[in-house]
Amino acid sequence: MALSRTRVSTALLALSLGLAATGPIAQDSLQDVMKNRGLTEKDVLSASKTYTPTGGRDEFLAFSSGGQSGQVIVYGIPSMRILKYIGVFTPEPWQGYGFDDESKEVLAQGRIHGKDITYGDTHHPAITETNGDYDGRYLFINDKANPRLAVIDLHDFETKQIVVNPFFKSAHGGAFVTPNSEYVMDPAQYAAPLSNGFVPLEEFNDRYRGGLTYWKFDNEKGRLDPSQSFTFELPPYSQDLSDAGKGPSYGWGFTNSFCSERYVGGNERGRPPFEAGCSSKDTDFLHVTNWKKAAELVAAGKVKKENGAYLIPMKQAVAEGILYLIPEPKSPHGVDVTPDGKFVTISGKLDSHTWVYSWAKIKAAIDNKKFEGKDPYGVPIIAINDVLHKSVNVGLGPLHTQYDSKPCVAYTSIYVDSMITKWDYCEGKVLHQLPVHYNVGHLMTMEGDSVSPDGKYLVSLNKLAIDRFNPVGPLHPQNHQLIDISGEKMELLYDMPIPLGEPHYAVAIASDKLKPGVRYKSGWNSRKDERSPWKTRAGREKTERSCDADGKCTVHVYGTTIRSHITPEIIEVEEGDTVSIHLTNLERAEDEVHGFAMYGHNVQLSIEPGKTASSTFVADRAGVYPYYCTEFCSALHLEMQGYLLVKPKGYKAKAVSLKEGTTYSQADYRKQVETNIATQGVIDGVVTFITSHNFKDFPTVVALVEDATDQLGFAEEAKAKSEAAAAKKDWSNAMLWANQWWQYQVKTADLGLRAKTHLEENGAKKVK
Length: 768
Ligand code: CUK
Ligand code: CUA
What we know:
With 768 residues, the protein is an alpha+beta fold. Among the domains are: 2-38, no CATH class; 524-647, Cupredoxins -  blue copper proteins (Immunoglobulin-like, Sandwich); 666-761. Strands 8, 9, 10, 11, 12, 16 and 17 form a 7-stranded mixed sheet that branches. Strands 36, 37, 38, 40 and 43 form a 5-stranded mixed sheet that branches. Strands 39-45-44-41-42 form a 5-stranded mixed sheet, with no helix packed on it. The longest helix has 31 residues, at 731-761. The radius of gyration is 31 Å and the shape is globular. The relative contact order is 0.08. Bound molecules: [4Cu:2S] cluster (CUK) and dinuclear copper ion. [4Cu:2S] cluster (CUK) binds next to β4, β25 and β29.
């Protein structure tokens, strides 16, 4: 939609005169709308609790697992508006993730035995904590299928690191952080040999193992440190969800398991399937581990390394008194420590109770060495009756528990009965139950697994949507239901389809705890958080070609992007060259992102203000390859383009110089200059409006004015070049530079008008 010059000028003029078009006035009253849409008063009340007027912000931000998409979904609460998908284990073209060289390096960290794994089964996001409270610095998320853990920096919402578990072949029950993000818990799920070779299933009991990794998080660097991380060897039970102790239980961790029967299926051999053999006993085991003491053993050099990583054998863990088992209800799933750290709630998928364990009692049993026996691996078992505080009938198939800001109040998701149960874990009584659609998995309250939950809202992450939305084929979205928990009774507010998944867990943080940046330092490698060696400044763009002794040649392009051109606009290489294009976005303005896509080479970059992104490929076919900016960044965005010319080997140029399709006369030049003078009038008018108001009180406007001033500076440069060409009677170049001068004016005017509108809409005051 390239606007003609006259149309843009007219539009600018109309806007500057305040002639903005107005639509027809809506005549419906609230009653009319309710009647026409069949809404009840309760619907309207619910709507008004989630409706967020234009420009409004959400009180909380939720980070949801994106399930098998390997991504993280960010949405606002209570509006339930999706704000972003963050690429984590999976390439994500919009963010250039897995396309630019910098992020390819991050994804490469997640290779398994040298193989690219381009999906992830993400389950549990976790936000870093300080003193048990969300601090909003980093987010972790696990991959169950390939035992990996990723670090996302919440300063720019980008994935910075992926680590692969050195022992496990799957890992489900992470990520859960310790109260000062010292460690991230990440237990195995399906038992397997801790080594990589073949071990027959017949040797399951002796040579298959479970485990629990405590990944060390370097809070200074914001990265996981595999060299300081350690793993507990555990019995071949299927370890499941985990949670870290806090307050009185600080220093300890809790990990569920199922299939402590150690059953190995084989229905093709005529054996009963896993599901029968793994749910035959009445109880499974809660694993209680002391990470604080384990870390001390590691620091004291008392733990040996295997596969290059610290592994604490069961024998050593038992001898050191840092590993215990407690029976828990059949096929348990969620384990959730209460905000005060005094209790641990555990739910069994095949039981209708949630069991509350007392930390004080667990600690007393450990201190008094009061055990009911040992498991086949010699791990002491604490009797359930010695530690049980309450057992509460919450409904059939309880899974996960989250907490309220009100003391003793918990919410548990009830999978089979499809409902949320609100209950009191101190007194052990049910307070309220609310049906949901359908088969809720996790549930989430605001900061509901921290030491200070915020209450207010609960999201029910339902597994099935069935009939709740317009049908879109056999694969349905999932349904995240927003529930108001501010009153005595829960109230369902809103259904939100999640078209990416299957999401498992989500965490929500008060949005005022997040302070994401809007630009990078100029020439920034965002994935490494350091200045890029490939950065370039305006006017310093260059292309360098070098060849080695074997005649292999590499071309490095140090380029830039700014509204609305890419420098360079022509790149010439020879067939067979390795080409690295490094682009720095020179913009400082908020949201002025440029993209870079090229025909036939799988090149797609997203270059945010200040970022330097690189793309390396082999130009193995002679030909013409147009490239362009993929973000509609300005009126002349479509013209933000260029050509990669891949010349056949030994090609000799025939044409001497570029021949334009059009040449320009003195009259063309004059006409352009007249347009420019008129446009300058519009700009001056807008400037007068802005400077006559208290614009400095509006940070958005201050930023726009800064950007506009920059653009006007570029206009001045182009104007000087135009006048120099005119002095030499080079009318074509004079006209083209005059046009470039006008391009910068249009950008200036565009910014100025945005600033003016912002001032008008936000009640700026006249100052002179
Ligand atoms: S799990 Cu999926 S509903 Cu991975 Cu936490 Cu419970
Ligand atoms: Cu830059 Cu379009």
